[in-house]
Design brief:
Among the domains are: about 1-105, Beta Barrel (OB fold (Dihydrolipoamide Acetyltransferase, E2P)); about 110-130 and about 135-265, Succinyl-CoA synthetase domains (Rossmann fold), CATH 3.40.50. Helices cover about 45% and strands about 20% of the residues. The chain contains 12 helices and 12 strands. The strands form 3 sheets. It has a 5-stranded mixed barrel. A 5-stranded parallel β-sheet has the order 7-6-8-9-10, with helices on both faces. Strands 11-12 form a two-stranded antiparallel ribbon. Helix 5 runs parallel beside helix 9 and helix 6 (about 180-195) runs parallel beside helix 7 (about 220-225). It is rod-shaped and about 205 Å long. Its EC number is 3.1.11.6.
């Protein structure tokens, strides 16, 4: 029995080859399902998954067939594919090698997405007037994403490189799975309660429509809308759009782009400061030159020259008045001096000493001065 089992042992490559041979005998078939995790490779090949409610299968459409494709492939779209089922032996993965694709309709997730999108649009949650302006120079930046996610590391790397002075606060939350929507909602509300950040980055790396579905939940959309702190979303890749992107105050195509948008680099800030300095200096010089021209023109103006002439005329008038006043005052002084001289002579003439010098005498009678002829008699001595 054991020898028989040893004879039936296969290598991995042999098993994959055996399965490939079996699948190669299956003729090309049509398979219907919903597109998920669609990616256009740089080579021109298209990779995606086809899924239904219970299962999924990988698909590849090579460039030779993809170049003739008229249909735009989007996650959530229901399609029919025609092709061969085969095995990629190196990876041990079986997949459909697609040759033709036809649109079948919208998948359930896509229908749910559009239904909620239309509902929130009608309620005005996407209106521009409700968008909060992103601060130009935030100093405290909040991040909502999974702690171990590559998106978190990418965002931190960009922020620390561009602006090492900013403070980064992570409020971790699951971004995929059943609990994700509640944790994202709680993280947004917590930032708003503590009000300790200037802006919030809600980020997640790429994935299928199922992987990103937490960001299409109504509870998350309304939490973003109710936030008084501006929110920037960076979810998935550039081609991925979620309900959260439409409600947020600003959408970035990727997590790294969100980090680049939210803060200017220190070199940009230095450049802005230098430009402002140059502008201020030019404004100062321009104003000084303008004022200098005004002064020169004013000095040449008739009004100023007339004012100068008036001052000069007033000076002449003052000099004339000075001369008049000076002459009058001198004349008056001379007249007063003459009067004083005349009075002085009169006083001197009435002085008894001067009278005596002219030959007059003082007569006394009985010791009293004789003042009149009536005071003496003939022969009095």
């Amino acid at each position: 029995m054991s020898n028989q089992r040893e004879e039936q042992i296969f290598t991995v490559s042999e098993i994959n080859k055996l399965v490939k041979d079996i699948l190669d005998n299956i003729p090309p078939i049509w398979v219907i399902g919903e597109i998920s995790n669609c990616k256009l490779h740089i080579s021109g090949h298209i990779y995606f998954s086809l899924k239904d409610e219970n299962s999924q299968i990988s698909c590849i459409m090579f460039k030779s067939y993809a170049k003739n494709l008229k249909l735009k492939l989007e996650n959530g779209v229901k399609i029919k594919v025609f092709g061969d089922i085969g095995v990629y032996e190196k990876g041990g993965v079986y997949q459909i090698y697609v040759k033709e694709i036809r649109e079948e309709g919208k998948g359930e997730l896509q229908i749910a997405f559009e239904k909620l999108k239309n509902k929130l649009f009608e309620e005005g949650l996407f209106d521009k007037e409700h968008k909060i302006k992103i601060p130009e120079y935030p100093l405290n930046i909040g991040i909502i994403t999974a702690k171990q996610a590559a998106a978190f590391k990418d965002v931190v790397n960009v922020l620390t490189r561009r602006a090492p002075f900013v403070k980064i606060i992570l409020n971790p939350a699951q971004v995929q799975g059943d609990r994700a929507k509640q944790e994202i909602k709680a993280a947004i509300e917590e930032f708003n309660e503590y009000n300790n950040v200037d802006v919030i980055l809600l980020v997640r790396g790429g994935g299928s429509i199922e992987d990103l579905w937490a960001f299409n939940e109504e509870i998350v959309a309304r939490s973003i809308y109710d936030s008084h702190i501006p929110i920037i979303t960076g979810i998935g890749h550039e081609v991925d759009f979620t309900i959260a992107d439409f409600v947020s105050d600003l959408r970035a195509p990727t997590p790294s782009s969100a980090a680049e948008i939210v803060i200017k680099s220190k070199f940009d800030i230095e450049s802005i400061i230098n430009n402002l300095r140059q502008r201020i200096l030019k404004d100062i010089i321009r104003n000084l030159n303008r004022r200098e021209d005004l002064i020169v023109n004013y000095k040449k103006s008739y009004g100023l020259n007339r004012f100068v002439d008036i001052i000069r005329q007033k000076r002449v008038d003052i000099d004339r008045i000075h001369l008049v006043l000076t002459g009058t005052l001198l004349q008056e002084i001379n007249d007063k001096l003459k009067s004083l001289t005349f009075l002085k002579k009169r006083v001197e003439n009435t002085n008894y000493r001067n009278i005596l010098k002219r030959g007059y005498i003082i007569s006394r009678k009985d010791g009293e001065i004789v003042k009149s002829k009536n005071d003496i008699n003939l022969y009095d001595r």
